[in-house]
Amino acid sequence: MPRESKAARRERACEVCRRMGERYPGVGAALDFANPFQLVIAVLLSAQTTDANVNRCTPELFRRWPTPEALAAAPQAEVEEVVHPCGFFRSKAKHAIACAQMIVGDFAGEVPRTMEELVRLPGVGRKTANIVLTEGFGIVEGIAVDTHVYRLATRLRLTRASSPAAAERDLLACIPRELWGPVNSQWIRFGREVCTARNPACGGCMLADLCPSAKS
User: Fold this and answer.
1) Catalytic residue positions, numbered
2) The whole model's pTM is what?
3) What is the rounded distance in angstroms from the CA atom of residue 170 to the CA atom of residue 84?
4) Residue 211: half-sphere exposure toward Cβ, Cα within 13 Å
5) How many CB atoms lie within 10 A of CB 120?
């Protein structure tokens, strides 16, 4: 099979984004949040669990500790009890409290608006920071590559990277910057509905003609 040129890969990636936009216009994060602080904590809690689990926990969490100042002073045992359904509850509660403390102590109670500052927060990596910037502030610095986005990018052969972090670099290289914003939310939805981990519905898939994996 001939090697795909960068121009051809970019064209194919753009068409994937166009079709995703038609299928999921206006789709946003599946997590429930009212402000950037709530979004940071919700994304932090979402590691290795479902958004539905997080959305079941956060109403009580934010009812009891609605601000960074309140969560910064919360007893860890009580936070653990509230976030228990999210799994890894001890480390997540510890990170959530430490994150709130840094927001209060280093950023005057306001969630920072830059990648460099966000990744300083405990429990926050580049993926989380990308989501917070895009969904919380409308600032697009990159593409948040979670397991769904990584799976689709790999099956579409837009990357051969061995990690989500490396896959993001490949996606940024072949997808024009103006299309980065909705990639995470749209591709997650598609990964849950169609291109699932175990049984991808390749038959009749809207991307089948663009997907080397569907043709193999």
Assistant:
1) 127, 146
2) 0.90
3) 36
4) 21
5) 14
